[in-house]
Description:
Elements: H1 8-22, H2 33-54, E1 74-82, E2 95-98, H3 100-111, E3 131-139, H4 143-146, E4 159-160, E5 164-165, E6 168-169, H5 172-181, E7 185-189, E8 203-207, E9 261-263, E10 267-270, H6 271-275, H7 290-296, E11 304-306, E12 313-315, E13 322-324, H8 326-329, H9 335-339, E14 346-348, H10 358-375, H11 380-387, E15 409-411, E16 419-421, H12 468-471, H13 489-498, H14 501-516, H15 522-533, H16 544-551, H17 564-570, E17 583-584, E18 587-588, H18 601-612, H19 616-625
Parallel strand pairs: 4-7
Antiparallel strand pairs: 1-3, 2-8, 3-9, 3-10, 5-6, 7-8, 11-12, 13-14, 15-16, 17-18
Helix pairs in contact: 1-2, 10-18, 13-14, 14-15, 15-18
Amino acid sequence: GPVLANRHAAKRLAGAGLARRRxxxxxxxxxxxxxxxxxxxxxxxxxxxxxxxxxxxTGVAPAPGGVESDREPVEVFLYRAMQGSALGEHxxxxxxxxxxxxxxxxxxxxVIAESIVSQPVRDSRKYGVDVIARWPFIIRNxxxxxxxxxxxxxxxxxxxxxxxxxxxxxxxxxxxFIKKFGSxxxxxxxxxxxxxxxxxxxxxxxxxxxxxxxxxxxxxxAQEPNPECMRYLDGAHVMGGLCGGGPGRLVGPTxxxxxxxxxxxxxxxxxxxxxxxxxEDCGGRRCKDFxxxxxxCQNPAYKWKYDRHTGQPTYFEYCVEYxxxxxxxxxxxxxxxxxLPEEHREIGLPFWRGRCDVVRNRVRANLLEAAFNELxxxxxxxxxxxxxxxxxxxxGGMCYPNPQTGSMYCSRRWGGVCQPCRIPxxxxxxxxxxxxxxxxxxxxxxxxxxxxxxxWPACKSDSAKDFCCxxxxxxxxxxxxxxTLPLDDNGYAVAVASQDIRVLREFVRRVAERRxxxxxxxxxxxxxxxxxxxxxAPQVGRTILDLEDDMSPFADPVRSTVPPKTAAAASAAPxxxxxxxxxxxxxxxxxxPRSGRPGSARQRLWALLPLLAALPSLAARAGAAAP
Length: 627
């Protein structure tokens, strides 16, 4: 909805409307009695609508004390990898959390790689991590923090990110910000980690709490704070940004210095289920958990790890969930890493393999999101629909685009954070804009831009392969989905922009049929359609030739001399790590959770994940895209 210049005006207007309603029309009126009643009714309805906007995002009333910020509250999902037994023991304050992809990246790069964990004899992952937990947060930061004068607003709605260690804000500069503006929620874009290939932004978040300058156990209580606890400039103790309802009780944050966020009860996904450990064989039965898998798994392909110094696979007496070659540990783009055959870069469960592959990381994130959606009544798709109605465009803010260069559009598509992005194919597209990610296809349908046609991009052509026209009104490209799509780069771009799995299935099938007849493995075609549909933005530089290259191992007998389903598994040396599935007593083991409806999107993704490893141009592009 529109940005409210004065949120209290709604209340005043409502009061005035109700007061007027009690008056009887005087003998002299500028309007007829009927017209006056209609006018008053319109004013009253306008007031009601404005009042509803105060709680439209949260669905709950503001906390006592009234709203102190003219910014709309923002609802996001925040995630944390942790020990499941500790879930709910403490309130979420003086802590750092992450977006979904940010959390998955943390687990992949910091928690599970065998060669970076020093204790070989163990029954848990690093830090005891066994779940990823998700909390729905509602955030409204202090108005003064987000003002132009402060110069501290980050991604429109947040303050600067604060690093917390053992409950302490370790950056001393942040102490002064908290004292002055209040206990804010901070954010920091974390995209660009060379160890993890991904083509969209992801974030870390910080939530300031009670007494953020002292460690846990030294703070005292809210009723009796340690005298050394931080104080605001007015002398009051810093009580933290969690609103008075406490954890699990959603009251609308007001933007006051001690009421900037609230959150509901969490849901969690077990890593053992997500990664497929509970589907592995532990001696004629399924493994129960990580400890059981580590001690008792029967698959010899998992009893290997990399020597940290030589990089050679070394036999190991325990089963390994995941390990990555030392040449790839620090950077996917390292020449030594890229020189390794793909099947020699990683060891362990198929779910985790492909850390340097953009598509496999995207599919892993989709699987994690699907797992949370199965557990929670609050679906990510519902939240994404709400994000499209939450404004990023504020007076003097950063989200005013340049239609000629295509830069500085903003989208909340990546985790609910206002992220500057660029639309490719504009008349004055510049290299300097390449630092911004490519905008999602739906960016012009956001509340900020849908009616601002003057801010729409100035496209250099109406060719779909230049991408720009795909963002504008349907049919503005010379090629569009209303006709049979041509089997060229224009048709390919339109099919991807549709984000419709049915359109992509048909397009991929026709490309395969034109090139190889009907001799392409249908599972591989489905994997391609799923991977293309998972992209929310154009993959600039990818052409229909890349699509054909991805099909070739499953169709061309010269390049693929083994059955498609086992091509990738057979590429590994016998007895060495690298197989995608193994037989147990004649039964093929399917990795991944079996929960959910048969044939559900989650199960289809699980079935297709191993196939994605054999798509050559996707893997090559992932290596080239890594910073």
